[in-house]
Design brief:
Strand order of the largest sheet: 4-5-13-10-11-12
Number of strands: 13
Bound molecules: pyridoxal-5'-phosphate, zinc ion
Helix content: 25-40%
Radius of gyration: 22 Å
Length: about 450
């Protein structure tokens, strides 16, 4: 893959060839997260806004020359990415803003943003095992580059997750018959656990936090030689996640927005968003970097606190994380270096929102746009609401809010959210007079 120059340690700057290291900088262990550095001169001849305009692939793989995969690499068949970007004028007006879009990543195959990274994990795991599917084994006419067969020699893939990364890995693995072992906290929402079981994953429900599940998963991967998808550990997860920025820019006509709001747990998504826009700037396809606003839950505010106080995230100890937004509950954000860089280098900010604000944002976003978000997705919108009230964004800013997960992921939280704003159903007998009585009290 000559379009990759090297993998660079975020701490010491040491450079490694992709086949020299497995996941992290050997000098810095689990903290030594690597960034994939590209040779844009070698990429540019293979992809351009014009070539993309003619490209009918509607998944993250339309950007293949910008991804850490070889041109002939087979990819899983699930349609990941190319999610809709909705202009939401009613919400914008309510907030005194002119241009607001919602990027709905709840529309991915397993209903969260994490599919972007897990699709990459499945491809990279097969590369490690040296067992790619060759073109002539592929039967699908429409998608000649999709993976269809399973060799028994593929390593098991593993991840720890608050739920969505797990569901994403489970679904992407199921699409190609790839065995996998998943570690999630026993407190994960039922819908996410149901997905794991339905997809046939081996599920370890850990009696502990996400942070406990993460540490256990790292140990198990090392012990059993499994391929490790973990967020803030495997350098290629950022590369899958960065595709959201390509899509936003392309959907806006190769323009970068002024501001992007994204919720932050481990910090891998915001790091990926940053990487995507950096790639496009390096290629000259956009002319400015948006300000990236990381939104954290008040009860899981490691990065927001470190940013506000100017603390060093390499030495800041873990905090106790607790929030209704399970997907952004992280006591020690694993991708904190990339996340902090994303905010500081773009002149962005970290802001926090309370659980009440997150829950209130679920019906507000749903009623104002038709997009139903899980708490962590709605948190990004709650962040915009707060930023608009505090004057952190300008009335004419072009603003994108990323919804990272579907509301169906956590129905219990959604029910709590609607009760919180006094929305309730009317329990009636199956009689028209009942309906009439209720209608008398309403203005529709
Ligand atoms: C994982 C996740 C996030 C946060 O992403 P990080 O990379 O952990 O910061 C936000 N929302 C949803 C729905 C997620 O699943
Ligand atoms: Zn290092």
């Amino acid at each position: 893959m000559e379009h990759i120059l090297h993998l660079k340690c975020l701490i010491c700057g040491r450079e490694y060839q992709p086949d020299e290291v497995a996941y992290v900088c050997p000098e810095h262990g689990n903290e030594g997260i690597l960034d994939v550095v590209y040779d844009y001169g070698r990429i540019a001849p293979h992809i351009s806004p014009a070539s993309l305009a003619a490209n009918r692939e509607t998944s993250i793989w339309r950007y293949k020359p910008l991804l850490p995969v070889a041109p002939d690499t087979a990819v899983p068949p699930l349609a990941v990415g190319w999610t809709p970007l909705y202009k939401v004028d009613r919400l914008a007006i309510e907030l005194g803003l002119a241009y607001v879009w919602v990027k709905d990543d709840g529309r991915n195959p397993t209903a969260s943003f994490k599919d972007r990274a897990s699709a990459m994990a499945v491809v990279k795991a097969r590369e490690v095992s040296g067992n790619q599917v060759s073109g002539d084994q592929v039967s699908s006419v429409e998608s000649p580059h999709h993976l269809v067969t399973l060799s028994p020699h593929h390593p098991i893939i593993t991840t720890a997750s608050t739920g969505n990364a797990a569901a994403a890995l489970a679904g992407l693995c199921a699409s190609v018959g790839q065995p996998n072992v998943i570690f999630v906290p026993a407190s994960a929402p039922q819908a996410k656990v149901a997905q794991l079981l339905a997809f046939g994953s081996t599920v370890m429900l850990v009696d502990g936090t996400y942070d406990d599940a993460f540490d256990l998963c790292l140990q198990a991967a090392a012990e059993f030689g499994w391929y490790n998808r973990n967020t803030g550990y495997n350098p290629y997860m950022t590369e899958g996640k960065k595709t959201v920025s390509y899509e936003i820019a392309e959907q806006l006509g190769w323009q970068a927005p002024d501001v992007v709001f994204v919720s932050v747990g481990d910090g891998c998504i915001i790091g990926g968003v940053h990487k995507g826009f950096k790639d496009l700037l390096a290629l000259g396809w956009i002319d400015r970097m948006p300000r990236l606003i990381g939104v954290q839950a008040a009860g899981s505010n490691y990065l927001a606190e470190a940013w506000a106080k100017g603390e060093d995230v390499l030495t800041k100890p873990p905090i106790k994380a607790e929030t209704v937004a399970d997907s952004i509950s992280a006591g020690l954000p694993r991708d904190r270096l990339k996340a902090m860089t994303a905010v500081t280098q773009t002149n962005g900010a970290f802001i926090t929102v309370t659980d009440e604000e997150i829950l209130a944002a679920i019906p507000a976003l749903a009623q104002g746009s038709g997009v139903f978000a899980e708490p962590a997705g709605a948190a990004a919108y709650a962040g915009l609401v707060k930023a608009a009230h505090e004057g952190l964004v300008q009335p004419t800013d072009q603003i994108v809010v990323i919804n990272t997960g579907s509301g169906l992921k956590d129905v219990a939280a959604a029910m709590k959210a609607v009760q919180g704003v006094g929305v309730r159903p009317y329990l009636i007998q199956p009689k028209l007079t009942n309906v009439k009585e209720i209608l008398k009290t309403l203005i529709l």
